[in-house]
Write a structure and sequence with these properties.
This protein has 2 domains: about 300 residues, Beta-galactosidase, Chain A, domain 5; about 100 residues, Sandwich (Immunoglobulin-like). The longest helix has 4 residues. The chain contains 2 helices and 33 strands. About 0% of the residues lie in helices and about 50% in strands. It is mostly beta strands. The termini are far apart. The strands form 7 sheets. Strands 5-6-7-8-24-18-17-12-15-14 form a 10-stranded antiparallel beta sheet, with no helix packed on it. Strands 4, 9, 13, 16, 19, 22 and 23 form a 7-stranded antiparallel beta sheet that branches. Strands 25, 26, 27, 28 and 31 form a 5-stranded antiparallel beta sheet that branches.
């Protein structure tokens, strides 16, 4: 697990590499360069990587962030190491930003027992009056084809659970771009985005607290999590935003439509995955913190859901065959350890537990195991037990099928 920081560029986490696989977009146009907010003169300089931004965006009034180069996004952040033991933690402390009245600090940690990344983002009101902002975690994922960077990855996917009581039509809101963008689909309660090279921004009022990004070409995945706060005021109700970079249709001076630039230096292949906090009203000197977690793992585009233990592709199945129990499923885990099956009878009483296979986040998990049972098993739950013996939760729980065959 390797994290690359560039403190001078707005305190960015520029790259995350897991098992040799890089996840984030790094803009080659600005690689090795620094353009100060003064030099940018109002332009947005997109270096890539991961950072935090304020919401809402816009130029309506002082309560909107213009999104241009400012100390929040382009200022030099002070970098310090807080710990280097079983848990490594760094701090990135940004300069004050007078237009918003904010100062950002981020503490980012990784442990020695798993590839989990923990983010603690702190916003401080540096003014003498109250202000209100949302904190937005913005991560740019690389969408170029690994074998040919001039092409894009046609098998890259993003997922977010739909809110069953969504305020948006169809469970999501297309904020910018084509309303019928072929990238978007909904299935089994999941919003699914199969990336295409068209600019678009889509908002979701998802309450699940997670999104997943899956590279179908390599089966590397990333899950980003944060806590959804029920009843809180999210900016325009959006807790999750996906932004697709790409050309878009505009009108020229004669009112005729045209497609904007496909030059990769001007319009590179990347997508933003954004987690939003609720709006926070801060008194002078007051702070607000947003915590989020990243879990690199492995998964195919067949993703069905995410649990505390990992990703679920082909859901757990348990079949009784000739008195033996056949367990199957495909998963990606967040922690190294082993799978354990807990067996229950029809009354819900536990009748036994069986250790299954060893697992680790860098390997896709294909469960196909037959176990012998001496009692009638009606239900099975498969949990991930990490390398320290801690139960990290279930990857699936199902009713056993075909139970009459063994009687």
């Amino acid at each position: 697990m390797k994290l690359t920081f560039v403190p001078q560029l707005g305190g960015r986490l520029m790259q995350v590499s897991f098992n040799g696989h890089p996840y984030l977009f790094v803009n080659q146009v600005y690689k090795g360069k620094y353009i100060s907010p003064a030099e940018a003169a109002g332009r947005w300089i997109n270096y890539g990587g991961d950072k935090i931004w304020p919401l809402p965006e816009g130029n309506d009034d002082e309560q909107h962030w213009t999104g241009a180069s400012t100390p929040l996004d382009d200022g030099a952040y002070a970098f310090s190491i807080l710990s280097q033991n079983n848990r490594c933690t760094v701090r990135l402390e940004g300069p004050p930003d007078p237009p918003t009245g904010l100062q950002y600090t981020r503490e980012i940690s990784i442990g020695s027992d798993s590839p989990e990344i923990f983010f603690h983002a702190i916003t401080r009101n540096i003014t003498g009056h109250s202000i209100a902002w949302s904190v937005q975690s913005v991560s740019q994922y690389d969408l170029s084809d690994a074998s040919n960077p001039n092409h894009y990855n046609h098998d890259f996917w993003a997922y977010a659970p739909l809110n069953p009581r969504s305020s948006y039509l169809n469970g999501y809101h297309v904020r910018d771009g084509l309303a019928n963008d072929p990238s978007f689909s909904v299935r089994d309660g999941l919003f699914r985005l199969n990336w295409r090279y068209l600019e678009n921004e889509v908002w979701l009022d998802s309450t699940a607290g997670w999104i997943a990004l899956v590279d179908g070409a390599t089966h590397y995945a990333m899950v980003e999590k944060t806590r959804y706060i029920e009843g809180a005021d999210y900016p325009d109700k959006a807790s999750v935003i996906f932004y697709k970079n790409g050309p878009t249709v505009q009108l020229n001076a004669q009112g005729m439509p045209y497609l904007t630039s496909k030059n990769l230096e001007e319009t590179p292949y990347y997508m933003e995955a954004e987690l939003n906090s609720p709006m926070a009203v801060l008194a002078p000197g007051e702070t607000y913190a947003m915590d989020s977690y990243w879990f690199p793992s492995r998964m195919s585009p067949d993703l069905k859901t995410v649990t505390d233990a990992g990703l679920v592709g082909r859901p757990l199945a348990a079949k009784n065959s000739a008195g033996k129990l056949e367990l199957s499923g495909s998963f990606g885990v967040f922690f190294p350890g082993a799978l354990k099956a807990y067996l229950y009878d029809e009354g819900g009483a536990e009748t036994g537990e069986v250790s299954l296979q060893s697992v680790q986040p860098q390997d896709p998990v294909q469960l196909s195991q037959t176990i012998t049972t001496t009692k009638s098993v009606a239900r099975v739950s498969v949990h991930l037990i990490d390398s320290s013996g801690l139960d990290r939760g279930a990857l699936g729980e199902v009713v056993v099928t075909g139970r009459d065959e063994g009687r």
